[in-house]
Amino acid sequence: MAKLTKNRKKALEKFDKKQAYSVNDAVKLAKDTSSTKFDSTVEIAFNLNIDPRKADQQVRGAIVLPAGTGKTQRVLVLTNTKAKEAQAAGADYVGGEDLINKIKDENWFDFDVIIATPEIMAKLGPIGKILGPKGLMPNPKTGTVTMDVAKAIDDVKKGKVEYRADKEGNVQTIIGKVSFDDADLVKNLNAIVSEILKVKPQTVKGAYITSVTISSTMGPGIKIDLEAK
């Protein structure tokens, strides 16, 4: 068993690991148990009663957080038809096969999100195995394959986050930074909870969300009771 650090031990003394807290209290605890010297990211994790192996129980999408993410996202737009529009909308990098080849040949990844127009998607085949594991492959379900590149760029810059259930039915995404006001973290948390409920597969029987936790970078997980006030 890994030895508890002094900071970790101090953090664990501030709450009951077995107890589930209200959203407001959980947010306060996540901030209070953060011990990093940098502005930690705050994440939320769901365990869902789904079977991701079934096509009708996939949970995947994206949402623009109302209070943003606290992170500046660098956007790459791959397109043969919307370059001027992408540049005008504030994309950090715009190109076509030249930048696809740069990723393939130079292992270039000076960006956080790729937005692509439909006509160039076929060209991404050679780098699909590179982009996929990094979570960078554009997808219509998350709004990153679109002809409306201006809106897609705006959404990313405002605080768009993607979510996707893993093979165990877990969904994890960021909801902000420890430096955020409690109210903004609560606003973002409630928005992602509403989003996850909205995309509940119709074939799911019984309880859908089986657990929810919130944590800061390197901080302990705080259980949330979504019904608690």
UniProtKB/TrEMBL annotation:
Quaternary structure note: Part of the 50S ribosomal subunit.
Keyword NADP: no
Record-linked Gene3D superfamilies: 3.30.190.20, 3.40.50.790
Family label: Belongs to the universal ribosomal protein uL1 family.
Pfam families: Ribosomal_L1
Highest taxon of the lineage: Bacteria
Protein name: Large ribosomal subunit protein uL1
GO BP, sorted A to Z: regulation of translation; translation
Family matches, as NCBIfam families: rplA_bact (TIGR01169)
One GO MF term attached to the UniProt entry: rRNA binding
Natural source organism: Mesoplasma lactucae ATCC 49193
Classification via InterPro entries: Ribosom_uL1_bac-type, Ribosomal_uL1, Ribosomal_uL1-like, Ribosomal_uL1/biogenesis, Ribosomal_uL1_3-a/b-sand, Ribosomal_uL1_CS
Protein keywords: Repressor, Ribonucleoprotein, Ribosomal protein, RNA-binding, rRNA-binding, Translation regulation, tRNA-binding
Record function comment: Protein L1 is also a translational repressor protein, it controls the translation of the L11 operon by binding to its mRNA.
A GO cellular component entry from the record: large ribosomal subunit
